Amino acid sequence: MPTPEQMREALARYSETFGARDLDGLVALFTEDAVQADPANVVPNIGHEAIRTFFQNAHDACIESSWEPTAVHICGEHAGVDFTVLVTMEGGSMTIEGVEVFTFADDGRIRAVNAYWGDADITFSPA
What we know:
Distance between the termini: 46 Å
CATH architecture: Roll
Structural class: alpha+beta
Number of strands: 7
Helix content: 25-40%
Oligomer: single chain
Radius of gyration: 14 Å
CATH topology: Nuclear Transport Factor 2, Chain: A
Strand content: over 45%
């Protein structure tokens, strides 16, 4: 089972690589067969290629973005994370607040992640 320190380090790297648009670094945080659903009620992305495509599309849709954990709750191999995503787009910005539930492999990589947010969790601000 991964240690809480491994999971917190992976989440810190997730935040860092997401904001830096470092797709190689971001995808490396996942196991090869990882399952990622964002939001949780959509068809999940399975494996490195699908996860890379998801994050590439997200980055291509904006000028800059960040993912910041506001609280981390660890329970065994799982971490529930309250997060804020800030997105800058042409014409304004968007904030998404939600919860992601991560499951980690023994080596500390992300085996699964589901993001929980909906329309009520999105705020738009014009430029």
